[in-house]
Amino acid sequence: MTSALVVHDLHLAVRNGQVLLPILRGINLNLPQGEIHGLVGESGAGKTMLGRVILDILPPSAVITSGNVDYPAHRSSPSLNRKSAHRRRPHISLIPQDPLTSLNPVKRIGKQMGEILRLAHKDSSQQIHERAKQHLREVKIRNPGQVLQQYPHQLSGGMRQRVLIAMAFSTEPSIIIADEPTTALDVSVQQRVLRLIRDLQKERGTTILFVTHDLGVVAKLCDRVSLMHSGMILEQGKVSDVFQSPSHPYTRSLLEAIPRYDKPREKLSPVANDLQTQLIREADEYDRQRRV
Ligand SMILES: Nc1ncnc2c1ncn2[C@@H]1O[C@H](COP(=O)(O)OP(=O)(O)OP(=O)(O)O)[C@@H](O)[C@H]1O
Ligand SMILES: [Mg+2]
Questions:
Q1: How far apart are CA 215 and CA 242, in angstroms?
Q2: Torsion of CA 246, 179, 34, 73, to 10 degrees
Q3: Tens of pLDDT along 28-52?
Q4: pTM for the model
Q5: Whose CA is nearest to atom 24 of ligand 1?
Q6: Under DSSP, is residue 190 helix (H, G, I), strand (E, B) or coil?
């Protein structure tokens, strides 16, 4: 099957004065069309930076020092208008982590959705309004006309995240980067939002890179998973294989740290400090060898 997204030996650093600080160290990913790929790793591992490379929305201080990102199924997509991420990578959308700060607080939902829909369609205002309503219905918002008239602060967290999901799918992207889309929601809303993302993905065959800290979410949602630490992918494979027989000590350690309802009395073991130290040392050693 054609790959939707290929990341090849990607190295990225952030410029700090004269110094380049390594952030991503030799990332390789190959996502077939229609795969949901979990990207797991602790805070600072580089998950968002990797998403930003794929979306081509890097901060000015970031430098790709080697490697590349390719979209084999979309080689011919227009990508020259550098005004907005949508126009640069029209076939990729983002579902961001924080639904409140990701929406513009001073614009009604209808206006914000309209701005995105106009990038893809040359419709009249009435047609855009109808399209926006339809996209809100698809994310199970029952009163789309009313929601389009509202400001973000008038909606619940779950509703705001549904709006962002509707926006992400509204441009009919072939790839979606979902950057911890449920972390800011409470557990019962999380379940509904995850189900919604999965249903929309199945219907459309979208490829999703799903960034999360939560291995439980990966088990429910993803086909394959990559585990990241210090800008490196330590383990990658089918979710069932990685969960049943993890090959890296860090993966084993993360799996042991998940509370089990079927073994409530077992003591939880956090990721050991010496393992963390060893992984950071390995990352330093990797940098030293690359410089030689
Ligand atoms: N705009 C930026 N400028 C400079 N350095 C940055 C910038 N954004 C992130 N970094 C650095 O890049 C590294 C990776 O950050 P990133 O945000 O990708 O982590 P993450 O895995 O997404 O973490 P989290 O789970 O907390 O979201 C960190 O060391 C961070 O300090
Ligand atoms: Mg992040």
A1: 11
A2: -120
A3: 999 999 999 999 999 999 999 999 9
A4: 0.91
A5: 43
A6: helix
